[in-house]
Amino acid sequence: MSADALRNVRVRIASGWSQEADARDALGQEVPLAGEQAVEWTLSSAVALAGKDGIPMNHLPAALRALRAVTGMSSLDGWNDEAGRTKQEILDALDAAIECVEAGDDR
Fold it and tell me: Considering its fold, how many domains does the chain have in total?
């Protein structure tokens, strides 16, 4: 279910969020996306890792449509890395997308 994919992404972002680098370690240094030292991820990185976390990849298209619907974004990276963007805005968008998907409105 697409809502599960979004919840998975939300959990990852809630534990650590990054801008301008796919993944960062505890010191804020850029590290490999799936590296063990990674503790922060961009929105697109969290989505990319959903499959590694056991989310079926066919659940992601509807999840991404819901995110686009609530944010108006044309690019995950562009929206994530926009100057002034906050972790709370990312989490709020994920919450709104989860609500959309659960209501059957994944557009």
Answer: 1
- pLDDT for 93 beyond 70: yes
Tokens 């926009």 belong to 82
Burial 11-26 (b: 16+ CB within 10 A, else e): ebbeebbbbebbbbbe
Residue type, 17: W
Assess whether pLDDT exceeds 70 at residue 55: yes
Q: Can you tell me whether residue 63 is helix, strand or coil? A: helix
Q: How confident is the model at residue 52 (pLDDT cuts 50, 70, 90)?
A: confident
**pLDDT value, residue 105:** 57
Neighbours of 46 (CB within 10 A): 30
Q: Is residue 107 part of a domain?
A: no
